[in-house]
Amino acid sequence: MDLQAHLTRRELFGRSACGLGTAALASMLNADGAMTSNGGLTDFPHFPGKAKRVIYLFQNGAPSHVDLFDYKPALTKWHGTQIPDSVAEGKRFSTMTGKQTDRPVLSEISNFAQHGRSGAWISDFTPKMAGIADELCFIKSMHTEAVNHAPAITFFLTGSEMAGRPSMGSWLTYGLGRESQELPSFVVMTSRDKEASCGQIFYDFYWGSGFLPSKYQGVKFRGSGDPVLYLSNPEGMSRQRRRGLLDDLAKLNELKLRDFGDPEIATRIAQYEMAYQMQASVPELTDFSNESAATLERYGPEVHRQGSYAYNCLMARRLAERGVRFVQLMHAGWDQHRNLNSQLKIQCEDVDCPSAALVLDLKERGLLDDTLVIWGGEFGRTPFLQGKIEQVKSWGWDHHPYAFTLWMAGAGVKPGTSYGASDEFGFSAVDNPVHVHDFQATVLHLLGIDHEKLTYKFQGRHFRLTDVHGKVIHDVVA
């Protein structure tokens, strides 16, 4: 009777004849395909992909496309006058401008010029990116559905505005497996503008595994101290003793795994082992002493400050060359609602040099051939002013989902090209519009994955990153 009183529901099913342990183990293998020795699916990739890994430089808060990459002379012509109703009427905006009846057009605050053989129009706020114009593939007709930050970021990274779906990095490590045994396949690092000008929050579900086993979630490297908590052994604990402790613990966990087939037990075993491997690999990873002075100078003066965007960009290159599958850098500070004139230029100075340095560094080391670099935010900014035109010091843009720009570089994309276009105001995507699901399908294609076949069965339905949408944009594929 005591046993029955303390028997949990999971234990009851697990100890039953042919209980749910077998079903859970089948779930661990997804029942859609066996796993390879590196943890990926046996039929992946579906075809030879140009990219083996991704570095996603996600710009939280949404950079202003019309100030950086989408030159619109009409904004200067219309400066101070109302944006035509035919352009903006019936569109949904955030609560900050949703009821604003006065919508004056605002000229871009930067100066544009053409760069490289491609003649790409790029702002003088990003001179280093302008210097690598012929390496970049701009998509100028991006559009999305969400008008607020967290849902829009979640949509880009998971394919759904609602939290709880696997992130892109989780999908890739689930399908393709790992290249490194010493480091996680999916690493996340965050940074923010030095002025802390906006309150963007980095939610864990931006790199979560959703309904996939938790071993596929991103591992966040901290911006100070040990990159990962509890990486150092306690005082008096030798590495040999740690090894023995983990071996004994693994045996106990394996007994439970055999009893219940719970995939989270398998995750626990794998995480303990990865933590042990990282005790040796992470100190070497974070030691920049073998980097040349020229390399460090290229990334800019902030490169030595742990947690800065420059530091994280150099770390991203070092992670890529050590076989990490997906590196997600998230940098907040782009939300210029009331400080456009002061903050945008500062924000560009923070990210311009390191972003360009990363692309050049990868290229010089031969890594750009099979590394896809992505730079962009969750939406764009309105080409009409938030607030009043007379209040120059508080000029700003609101959130804008109808047209914006991102760029890609590296494996499989056409360098020195621009795809799609917005209208004369930079308001709506009018030429070859690219939806978020199209972008996701294209990223997977560059990795050799058919986005319709990367699925996971959960609650009776096969889910995928692109939901039931998405088409590959073949015109940006080299």
Structure description:
By secondary structure, the chain is α/β, with parallel strands linked by helices. It has one domain (32-227, 286-476): Alkaline Phosphatase, subunit A, CATH 3.40.720. It contains 15 helices and 17 strands. It has helices spanning 2-6, 9-15, 21-28, 65-68, 73-77, 85-88, 127-131, 149-158, 168-176, 239-260, 263-285, 293-299, 309-321, 340-364, 436-446; strands at residues 53-60, 112-115, 120-123, 136-143, 186-192, 219-221, 326-332, 371-376, 380-381, 399-400, 404-410, 417-419, 421-422, 429-431, 434-435, 455-458, 461-464. The strands form 5 sheets. Strands 1, 4, 5, 6, 7, 8, 11, 12 and 15 form a 9-stranded mixed β-sheet that branches. It has a two-stranded antiparallel ribbon with strand order 2-3. It has a two-stranded antiparallel sheet with strand order 9-10. β2 and β3 form a beta hairpin. α3 (21-28) packs across α10. The longest helix is centred in the C-terminal third of the chain and has 25 residues, at 340-364. It is globular, with a radius of gyration of 24 Å. The relative contact order is 0.21. Mean pLDDT is 89; it is low at 1-6 and 16-32.
Quickly list its features.
9-stranded mixed β-sheet; globular; 16% strand; Alkaline Phosphatase, subunit A; 17 strands; 478 residues; alpha/beta; single chain
Q: What characterizes the major β-sheet?
A: 9 strands, mixed
Content of β-strand: 15-25%
Estimate the global geometry from the Cα principal axes. Answer: globular
Number of strands: 17
Instruction: Give the count of helical stretches.
Output: 15
pLDDT average, as an integer? Answer: 89
Residue stretches low in confidence (pLDDT < 50, at least 5 long) are: 1-6, 16-32
CATH topology: Alkaline Phosphatase, subunit A
Ends: how far apart?
Answer: 68 Å
CATH architecture descriptor: 3-Layer(aba) Sandwich
Helix content: 25-40%
Count of the separate structural domains: 1
CATH class: Alpha Beta
Q: What is the alpha-carbon Rg in Å?
A: 24 Å
SSE class: alpha/beta
